[in-house]
């Protein structure tokens, strides 16, 4: 797995986060959105810091693998780069994200 920036990881989570386990989502959000340390998260859930680290790493690996297979983040970036109106971009992305 290549090194992803914090923003790229959060972007992947925004797209694929619902595919993670409940625990992975919980720990990921505490770490990336609440900006809690691994030690703080471990203390909050009464588990080891290493367990938190492993869950977050597994979550990031899963997000990366989803993107490697589905390329939704790449497609979104390509749409954003198009020289077309924002209304058309929104229509395209709405179609892409349809259930």
CATH superfamily of the domain at 6-70: Winged helix-like DNA-binding domain superfamily/Winged helix DNA-binding domain
Strand content: under 5%
Helix-strand topology string: HHHHHH
Instruction: Name the poorly predicted regions.
Output: none
Overall structural class, as computed from helix and strand content, comes to mainly alpha
Radius of gyration: 16 Å
Task: Let me know the largest β-sheet.
Answer: none
Supply the CATH architecture of the domain at 6-70.
Orthogonal Bundle
- Outline, from the CA principal axes? elongated
**Chain-averaged pLDDT:** 91
Count of helices?
Answer: 6
Give the SSE layout.
Layout: H1 6-16, H2 22-32, H3 38-45, H4 49-70, H5 72-81, H6 86-97
Short description:
With 99 residues, the chain is mostly helical. It contains six helices and no strands.
Describe the structure.
Helix 5 packs antiparallel against helix 6 (86-97). By secondary structure, the chain is an all-alpha fold. The chain is elongated. It has a domain at 6-70: Arc Repressor Mutant, subunit A, CATH 1.10.10.10. It contains six helices and no strands. Helices cover 75% and strands 0% of the residues. The chain has helices spanning 6-16, 22-32, 38-45, 49-70, 72-81, 86-97.
